[in-house]
Design a protein that fits this description.
alpha/beta, Rossmann fold, five-stranded mixed beta sheet, 3 helices, 31% strand, elongated
């Protein structure tokens, strides 16, 4: 009897896998920006290194988050023109966590424009945890990145509008 109870306490080992950047590209295309910005620097400052959380029996890693975010932002209208205002971006967190009923993908950026004071942007993309599959996890991270990228665009567009009003 005791052996049967102990067997029920064993856990399934986590399947370790790397998130695929092709699965994390923008799910939605943003409207063109109000005014242009240069993507000066993207750095990966995640305290967890390449670890990107877990969902169900899957534990994830993401090796080159800075390149992924750079690709996503360049696809959404950032430029390499040195005459434009410069955006510096640090990736502070990028992972997925879950409980029985919901999954919480987290993306946190620390951004500054032209060396100004930094702003923290955090995704708000929690959703129902259906099956805990690898594909579901990657879609959730892509949605979190879409959310924080949209917040960044809105912040920059508002800054651009106030900059033009001062002219």
């Amino acid at each position: 009897m005791a052996l049967g109870l102990l067997a029920g306490c064993s856990s399934v080992p986590l399947e370790r896998s790397a998130m695929q950047p092709a699965q994390l590209l923008p799910l939605a295309t943003l409207a063109p920006p109000v005014c242009a910005y240069r993507l000066d620097a993207v750095s990966d400052r995640r305290a967890a290194g390449t670890a990107a959380g877990s969902l169900g029996a899957h534990a994830f890693s993401l090796d080159d988050a800075a390149d992924l975010v750079r690709q996503r932002l360049m696809a959404n209208g950032f430029r390499d023109d040195p005459a434009l205002p410069a955006l510096s971006l640090e990736i502070r967190q990028l992972y997925i966590a879950a409980n029985q009923s919901s999954k919480v993908p987290v993306a946190v950026y620390r951004v500054s424009v032209d060396g100004g004071p930094p702003t923290i942007l955090r995704s708000h993309a929690a959703s129902v945890n259906w099956n805990g599959t690898e594909a579901e996890s990657q879609r959730a991270i892509a949605r979190a990145l879409d959310d924080v990228d949209l917040q960044l665009r809105q912040m920059l567009d508002a800054r651009c509008g106030s900059r033009h009003a001062a002219d």
